[in-house]
Amino acid sequence: MKRRGAKRKQRDELQSSSQQEQPPTENHEPPAKTAASSRAKRAKAAKPEPEPEYIEDQRNLEDLWKKTFPVGTEWDQLDAVYQFKWDFTNLENAFEEDGKLHGKTVYLFGCTEPQLVSFKGESKIIYIPVVVAVVSPFPPSDKIGIKSVQRESEEIVPMKQMKMDWVPYIPLENRESQVDRLKSQIFILSCTQRRAALKHLKIERIKKYEYCLPYFYHPFKEDELEQKTEVQIIFPAEPAPVFCEFDWELDELEEFTDKLIEEDQLAKDQKDAFKDFVKEKVREAKRANREAREARKKAREELNEETKSAFENMKFYKFYPGQTPDSPDVSNTKSPFINRYYGKAHEVL
């Protein structure tokens, strides 16, 4: 058996002989530097190249639903509306060939519907964005209704009074073009009131935005107010006012009043005054219904045939967001009801 020292000596002699046979190179670098450079090159070569980042192209109508102002939504809830990545490709597809809105003049407005829904195992109230599409050759209305449970009276005011108006929507591919050269067929209800400026407004003015409803007057359909037979009663009694609802077709006034007395809601000595008060409210309501019917009849008579045809063929479509991993499933919350002015949608999508 050979000794290890002999092997080492023999190996060293071979390495020395090999180095002596190699010809000298020009610009020879010191051995230490060459070794370090080789190690750096090997390390650089071993580093994996990063995968190219994939950026999805924006769809042509991708921000359409966001551009529509969510009328009637509380200002402090707007951020909650946009916290999810809602998917409105159903709205976008409606403008494609064979879609329900393809090639038509359409007016869009937004709203929100607070609903209790489950998302990622947690149930909570979520403000669901909804977009209503009105197919019409002209704007369905230039007014806004302001009404809430807290407000006794209803206001119908011009949109511009609330800094709202119908404006053309420009698809992404056309935003470099001059707007006046585009023949837009999509109009959205927009609001120019800046959130940052709300601090300068009175509380009453801010609250008005929360009570806004897109207004619509159909000359060929009776408004629900014209069909109502109930009146809200707020009788100024002592020690506390009497709140109730009286239906002049279903309720008999004498029995109605006696029941309030039995339930200690009305004093006996105020019975006659209460009955007179209710009769006056009923007369006012009937007069308002009659005037509304007459105004509707007059409006119909003044319409030309083209406008009449437009109203008769007007369609309302209500769009809800589709389900995605990034947003709650709202399929069980869909409703055709739009608001008290528009009534129900012809189709829910």
Automatic annotation (TrEMBL):
Residue ranges the record marks as coiled coil: 275-309
Domain of life of the native organism: Eukaryota
Coiled coil listed as a keyword: yes
One annotated GO biological process: regulation of cellular response to heat
InterPro entries noted in UniProt: HIT4
Keyword 4Fe-4S in record: no
Keywords noted in UniProt: Coiled coil
Region of interest (Disordered), ranges: 1-56
Basic and acidic residues bias locations: 46-56
Record's protein name: Protein HEAT INTOLERANT 4-like
Organism expressing this protein natively: Trapa incisa
Biological classification of the source: Eukaryota, Viridiplantae, Streptophyta, Embryophyta, Tracheophyta
